């Protein structure tokens, strides 16, 4: 169906964005909202929460976080090990109208007045801001196409990842359960500045014991639903470039109509993280490293399992072929990437056309995982991954690459 958007009161931007992909940061990303399920019944809950809040959104995504980052539970998440949609998580997202909040953030919607704007759309979509405003003000076919484009490639690629984090003792037989709990208490005390002399002889012993732990994280993926019909209703009945009580009330009444669809779930392998490079008097850094490594691992697995979640990153040079991507994003000698050329059509929409295939060179894969440099990992100082051409020709700096399925 054709979309008929009516937008009034759009302000003309003073700064314009260009479509040119001249730098690594200048390309369209999917957007992500990351949540922690924190279990107050387990040891180390406070340290898990603190570590999670320090973890940034993966740099291949736009940060679309809302104010609530932690979902507190006083018991184990039921059915966390199942591949099925988790009713507790879905209920939380639905009851708190998270989908509508994500939509509101896209349009910088003022909670009290309902006033909206298109600044974030223009910024993340790399539209020429002046041209964008002009086409919308004229209600032109090009302006409508640009809104469709933003809906398909930006708003519709908004995701929520919910991380259920649990620590498991891997050092079976080496320490008793009581000793493990004692050490966990020491870590918590160290993180809060408490006296730990009566809990352990020294932090070095504590560090040796904590190395026996592994972390498992179940990560659940949801995607914001954004269709032509939903967009029509929003733009016609709920969007206003000025304070408007009627449209404010219409949006508030329609919050429950915005939905997140469940995509799937993965679980980290639970491998023990190396703690080389961490000062013995900073046990909280161990928690951060274990959490971040496992979450990054799950993000990679989600991308490999669900094509709609796959990210793109630009080539930063062509002689040699390089990109700021590495082991954190799951790059290995078995990886292959399609090279995409971004084409802007006459109506303002974008297309991604494959122009070739590349693969990483085995000994030139960047280890960009969290604290890889501190632990002295091979490839940690490379700064980028170098690729070789498998097929195609005439690659250019700024063309996007996206991992292909190995299946």
The percentage of residues in β strands lies in: 15-25%
Radius of gyration: 24 Å
Unreliable parts: 1-23, 172-188, 198-206
Main beta-sheet strand count, sense and barrel state = 6 strands, mixed
End-to-end CA span: 35 Å
Helix content percent band: 25-40%
Provide the structure class: alpha+beta
- Overall shape: it is flat
Count of helix runs: 11
> What is the chain-wise order of helices and strands?
EHEEHHHHHEHHEHHEHEEEEEE
> How many E strands?
12
Mean pLDDT across every amino acid position? 83
Characterization of this structure:
The protein is α+β, with helices and mostly antiparallel strands. It is built from 11 helices and 12 strands. The strands form 2 sheets. Strands 1, 2, 3, 4, 5 and 6 form a 6-stranded mixed beta sheet that branches. A hairpin with a 2-residue loop joins strand 7 and strand 8. Helix 1 crosses helix 11 (283-305). The two termini are 35 Å apart.
């Amino acid at each position: 169906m054709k979309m008929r958007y009516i937008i009034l009161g759009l302000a003309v931007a003073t700064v314009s964005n260009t479509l040119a992909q001249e730098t690594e940061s200048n390309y369209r990303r999917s957007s992500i909202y990351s949540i922690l399920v924190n279990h107050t019944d387990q040891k180390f809950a406070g340290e898990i929460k603190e570590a999670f809040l320090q973890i940034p959104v993966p740099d291949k995504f736009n940060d679309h976080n809302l104010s609530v980052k932690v979902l507190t539970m006083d018991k184990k998440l039921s059915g966390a090990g199942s591949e099925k949609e988790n009713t507790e998580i879905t209920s939380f997202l639905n009851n708190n109208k998270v989908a509508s909040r994500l939509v509101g953030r896209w349009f910088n919607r003022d909670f009290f007045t309902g006033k909206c704007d298109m600044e974030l759309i223009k910024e993340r979509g790399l539209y020429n801001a002046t041209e964008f405003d002009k086409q919308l003000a004229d209600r032109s076919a090009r302006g409508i196409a640009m809104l469709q484009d933003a809906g398909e490639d930006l708003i519709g690629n908004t995701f929520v990842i919910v991380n259920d984090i649990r620590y498991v003792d891997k050092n079976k037989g080496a320490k008793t359960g009581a000793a493990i709990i004692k050490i966990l208490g020491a870590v918590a005390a160290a993180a809060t500045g408490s006296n730990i002399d009566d809990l352990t002889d020294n932090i070095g012993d504590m560090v040796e014991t904590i190395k026996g732990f592994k972390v498992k994280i179940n990560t659940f993926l949801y995607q914001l639903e954004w269709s032509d019909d939903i967009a029509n209703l929003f733009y016609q009945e709920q969007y206003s470039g000025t304070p408007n009580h009627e449209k404010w009330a219409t949006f508030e009444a329609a919050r429950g109509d915005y939905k997140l669809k469940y995509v799937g779930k993965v679980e980290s392998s639970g491998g023990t993280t190396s703690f080389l490079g961490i000062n013995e008097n900073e046990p909280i850094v161990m928690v951060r490293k274990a959490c971040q490594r496992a979450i990054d691992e799950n993000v990679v697995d989600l991308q490999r399992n669900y094509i709609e979640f796959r990210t793109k990153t630009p080539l930063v040079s062509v002689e040699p072929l390089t990109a700021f991507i590495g082991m954190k994003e799951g790059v290995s000698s078995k990886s292959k990437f399609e090279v995409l050329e971004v084409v802007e059509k006459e109506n303002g929409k974008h297309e991604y056309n494959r122009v070739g295939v590349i693969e990483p060179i085995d000994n030139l894969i960047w280890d960009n995982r969290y604290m890889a440099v501190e632990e002295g990992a091979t490839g940690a100082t490379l700064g980028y991954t170098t690729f070789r051409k498998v097929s195609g020709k005439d690659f250019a700096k700024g063309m996007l690459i996206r991992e292909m399925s190995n299946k």
